[in-house]
Amino acid sequence: MRQSPRWARVLLRWLAPPGDADDLLGDLEEAYRIHTRRHGPIEAHVRTGLETLDMAAALVRTRIDMFGSYRGSTAMQDYKLGFRMLIKYPGLTLAGGLAIALAIGIGAGWYDVMSDVLRPRLPLPGGDRFVEVQMRNVATSQGEWRVLHDFAIWRQEARSIEELGAYRTIERNLVLGDAQSAPVTVAAITASAFRLVQVPPLHGRPLLDADERPGAPPVVVLGYDVWRQWFGGRADAIGDTAQLGRTVATVVGIMPEGFAFPVNHQLWTPLQLLGSGYAPLEGSAVQVFGRLAPGATRAQANVELTALAERIAAASPPTHQHLRPRVLAYGAEYPDDESWIAVSVTHLPVILVLIVACANVGTLVYARTATRDAEIATRYALGASRGRIIGQLFIEALVLASVAAIVGLWAAHWTLKWGFDVYMAGEGYVPPFWIDPGLKLRTVLYAAVLTTTGAAMLGILPAIKATGSNVQAQLRNLGSGASTLRFGWGWTTVMLFEVALTVICIPVAWSFAEEALRDRRIRAQFPADQYLAALVAMDREAAAVPGAGEPAFRARLEQTYRELERRVAQEPGVVAVTFGNRLPGMSPVWRRAEIEASDGSAPIRVRNLWTSAVGSGYFEAFDKAIVAGRAFHDGDRTASATTVLVNQAFARQYSRYTNGASPLGRRVRYATDDPAKPGPWLEIVGIVEDMGMTPTNGGEAAYVYRAVSPATASPLVMGVRMAGDPASLVPRLRTLAASLDPDLKLEEVRTLDEIAWREDAPNMMITGASAAVVGLGLFMSAAGIFSLMSVSVARRTREIGLRTALGASPARLLAAIFRRALVLVGSGVAAGNFVILAVTVWTGASEMAEALPITSVVMLTVGLLACVEPARRALRIQPADALKEA
Amino acid sequence: MSRKRAPQSLAEFELLVLLAALRLGPEEAYTVSIADHIQQKTGRSVRRANVYTTLQRLEAKRLVTTRLGEPRPERGGKPRRLVTLRPSGLTAVRATAGAIRVMVGELADIIGETR
User: Fold this and answer.
1) Residue A328 CB coordination number (10 Å)
2) Residue of B13, B30, B31 best to disrupt the A interface, most CBs of A under 10 A
3) Each residue of A626-651: b (16+ CB within 10 Å) or e?
4) Distance, in angstroms, between B25 CA and closest chain A CA?
5) Among A74-78, A136-140, A254-258, A307-311, the least confident range
């Protein structure tokens, strides 16, 4: 027997209202048979199909109509009321909404980042079964990566892990003909990786087992970006050659966009292992990965590898007695038995922030509830249950929290994206392929849970209090306008804490802002826009000459760098070329030290002495003159040299400690890990002008400079001063380096301007964030005090009216009413000031103490402003109001 | 003193559906037969979905009641939802049809209707 189309039956069954499905399907069947009889089976199918779509549309319309009628339902009315409350109480909406948005934004952002970092989800087929095998030395708690010996045994014998593979990361120059070179991140990896990930190449083939055999011709698989950038995205790039350092490899495959397994790699070459195998701890460091075999668990894999490890340890106790393997989820920071750490790190800060925000906003919600106790009592009187009223107040809180959550999530999403693009990517950090900045669906769901939890804290607690035993009193008070709810000690303590915290935050935020602005001002005086900084390194592995050792490598580095410097100096627009281990404005290196006193007394101990190693022409390149003593000469660059220069800030500070003495001719030595063996004494032979790019201590950072050669500077940073835009030299610099030596890498090339901006960016961000926190704190405090006073005035309508009738002056009236607010603000300010003073005494930082009067005045002013409206309301209460109540 | 409620007015298609249900009777009036009957009598194409939603609306207005009949083999073993007019439905049909008859009667000369 022919039947109507199956899809039509499924669709109607799915859309039909409960109870109607059978007769609708019967109609369908009957109509289909009528059509078949009248028009034949083919046309019957078409007609029935069209009728089904028509019926489906009608059913959808019916559902929409049903939803429309649901708009009149109780829950929908509560939601509508919730939105009306947002408009009716704009202060609470703004202050509370911002606080919750901040809490949920921070919470969701934190969860998002921590989930990616601690328990990542790999965007690869079956990625949840990928594992990595780590070896740990239980005696030292350090990782041991020289595991090629163990890897061979695991690969052969482990049954719980399949496609076991290994890789090591190499930073190598990619050179194409005469074009410029650039360092790329290469994975020397076993071919099993490509079977594991099951991602087919875009063109060509992946690595094969045959490529791993010693003596196999060098091949390379290109990442998408490298292919587009260096090979123009040509499909016929397969078969071309790519020069990696000094090795020329044939391109055999191109991986699709976004592929960066195992972490953030751009190219893949075979990991060629010795056919003869490796002795324990022999060979290079590698990382081991694989996939759990079907049915196997990580626990089983751990047991199996532990058993193998015990066997290896029995055969080779000296190397393996303390080594224990562990199988972790791929990319995870903690093994399964320590997953509680990841869970705690992920959730505890979020919950803490949410509780703080909800405690603050809770005071406002409670105050709003207190002003509505007449409404609540009326609902009670009309037969609403306590649960119904609590539910209504919960939905109102849920509406507020949901709107705030949307704002918070939006802000968190863009902050994450912006922070990542501007800061991390700018720093040259390429994240693992599983990290995708910006919120994911799971984060949004997490935020939904946070929102509901927050709403429960905000809505249910005040509602329980408001619908408690005093409802009878509220009913008695109906019509009087007076409130029976009062702020208990719990809420008052929360507000006191809030005021104190705000008081503490004001000087902190102020000092952040002052410091950030001062840093910008100091840096602005330095012509950073004229300089280019390039981190230069020699590929140690590729450049090493077997048997020649370290001196030969250093000699080659020195020679190559000198030649590069000579060629760069000949480029048009280049004013000066120099080098050091850092340029002005770069992250500092500081050390503990002691300096000889001028009068032979005990040495002066210094906690933070800034140090820098400088090459020839360093101070000249930055236009800094030697103001006393002499400059460095070539003799100062030898390994045995014991001479240093200091800056003027050093000299000024030394002079202060020694009653005007000069540090010239005095000696300085650095502390080492062993207090009994400090470093050698170094003689101060000259004083140089301050650089002005290090704003720490208001530009008073005391510097010690020592002279180095290119081979001994670590890291080696080239500084180029240009007459024009320094960024224009970048491509040429790369070309010069590539043509000079394929093993010479320019790892980071940036203008000093950019470096300075990146140094300042965190300060500016902290300043902005702390200003926002203080602003929000002040607003929340004001809103809290306003709420407290509003409730107080509402509760004491009768008393105020009677006092007015008895001739109380407005001043006395206000003093009586607002005593509590003044006590609250005063106590909060006192508590905050006490903490500030304690910190001042402890750290010796007097700036915070100097801010005490300003802080107190600001907080008291905010407190008084918050009292203005309730005061106005109190003064407008007439004696007749009191009589009405009576 | 209680006021008698005025009969509900019907849209044209509602009237046709109720008339078809009356004509077919409580044992034979259901969506497919009503659509078929209107199509036969008026010659216009009638969509089953329209009959279904109209019947739902009439039921919501309390002009008809529906009940499930016996499962039938020609419907794949599924029952029919049979329609019965309530007295209020009959009243509404009478009122609407009467109003049309009166209006049409007044214009018989123009539109050529005899009754």
Assistant:
1) 18
2) B31
3) bebbebbeeebbeeebebbbbbbbbb
4) 18
5) A74-78
For chain A, percent of residues with pLDDT exceeding 70: 91
User: What contacts 24+ positions apart, CB below 8 Å, involve A46-50?
Assistant: A48/A4, A48/A5, A48/A8, A49/A5, A49/A8
In 3D space, the residue among A166, A168, A273 whose CA is nearest the CA of residue A214 turns out to be A273
Q: Count Cβ atoms below 10 Å from residue A419 Cβ, excluding itself.
A: 16
Residues 6+ apart with CB under 8 A from B110: none
Range A162-171 average pLDDT: 92
Q: Which residues of B touch A (CB under 8 A)?
A: 30-32, 36, 47-50, 52-53, 56, 68, 71-72, 74-76, 78-81
Span A850-870, average pLDDT = 82
Cβ–Cβ below 8 Å for A23 and B78:
yes
Indicate which of A12, A15, A30, A37 best probes the interface with B, i.e. most B CBs within 10 Å of its own CB.
A30
Indicate the DSSP class of residue A139.
T
The owner of tokens 């903490």 is: A835
- Nearest CA-CA partner of A862 in A772, A746, A779: A779
Amino acid at A404: A
The continuous run of DSSP H or E covering A797 comes out as helix A797-805
> A59 with B56: CB under 8 angstroms?
no
The whole-number pLDDT of residue B115 equals 45
**With an 8 Å Cβ cutoff, are A55 and B48 in contact?**
yes
Cα–Cα nearest to A268, from A283, A284, A249, A281: A249
Q: Closest CB to B78: pick one of A25, A57, A62.
A: A25
Check residue A570 and give its pLDDT.
Answer: 93
Among A3, A20, A51, whose Cβ lies nearest the Cβ of B76?
Answer: A3
- Distance (Å) from the alpha carbon of A78 to chain B's nearest alpha carbon: 27
* CA-based nearest residue in chain B for residue A62: B53
Residue A721 to residues A168, A256, A727: CA-CA distances in angstroms?
37, 41, 11
Query: How far is the alpha carbon of B59 from chain A, nearest alpha carbon, in Å?
Result: 14
Report ipTM for this prediction.
0.87
CB under 8 Å to A591, separation ≥6 — which residues? A609, A611, A670, A671
Task: Write down the number of H helices and E strands in chain A.
Answer: 30, 22
Q: Min CA distance, B101 vs chain A (Å)?
A: 32
Q: Tell me what the mean pLDDT of segment B100-109 comes to.
A: 84
Name the DSSP letter for residue A141: T
How remote is the C-alpha of A759 from its chain's centroid? 17
List CB contacts (< 8 A) between A33 and chain B: 74
A161: nearest Cα among A288, A318, A274: A288
Please indicate, yes or no, whether the overall pTM of this predicted structure exceeds 0.90: no
Token code pair at residue A114:
């921590």
CA distance A611 to A582: 10
Distance from CA of B24 to the nearest CA of A (A): 16
Supply A789's token pair.
């006073």
CA–CA dist A838, B10 (Å, integer):
84
Instruction: Compute CA A862 distance to the chain's CA centroid, rounded to the nearest angstrom.
Output: 34
Residue of chain B nearest A4, judged by CA positions? B76
Is cis: bond before A810, omega within 30 of 0?
A: no
* Residue B44: per-residue pLDDT: 87
A-chain CB neighbours of B72 within 8 Å are 26
Summarize the confidence of residues A808-822 as an average pLDDT: 78
> Alpha-carbon distance A418 to A402, whole Å?
24
Residue A390, CB-side half-sphere exposure with 13 Å CA sphere: 13
**Residue of chain A with shortest Cα separation from B80:** A23
Residues in chain A: 886
